[in-house]
Specification:
Layout (H helix, E strand, L loop, with lengths): L1 H27 L1 E6 L3 E6 L4 E6 L9 H33 L10
Antiparallel strand pairs: 1-2, 2-3
Helix pairs in contact: 1-2
Length: 106
């Protein structure tokens, strides 16, 4: 009985190592989303914003509301793409490991 428990613990350890490897890979991934030539947002596969570039020709008080709206839309778009990338990577890992499909797990 204890031998089976040891095997299960080894399997859990292997799954955790694979998850850690995938997560590290996602951290290195870069997704760039832009709103024309005004804004470019870069996020990684873990939904972290890693860069924001603003075209200086649009930086003036007259464009403040437009820039705020574009920033929100562009950041949300980038984060959505990052979540999709993350879900695809974790879903592939679950399939590769023959894990059952449990909603919300990966």
């Amino acid at each position: 009985m204890f031998e089976q428990f040891g095997n299960i613990m080894e399997m859990v350890k292997k799954v955790q190592q694979n998850v850690d490897t995938v997560q590290e890979g996602l951290k290195q991934e870069r997704i760039e989303v832009s709103s024309g030539d005004v804004i470019k947002i870069t996020v990684n596969g873990q939904q972290e914003v890693v860069a924001i570039l603003l075209n200086s020709k649009y930086l003036n008080a007259d464009n403040a509301a437009l820039l705020q709206d574009l920033l929100l839309a562009t950041i949300n778009n980038a984060l959505s793409k990052s979540r999709d990338l993350n879900q695809a990577a974790m879903g592939k890992l679950a399939t590769d490991l023959n894990l059952p499909k449990i909603p919300g797990m990966f």
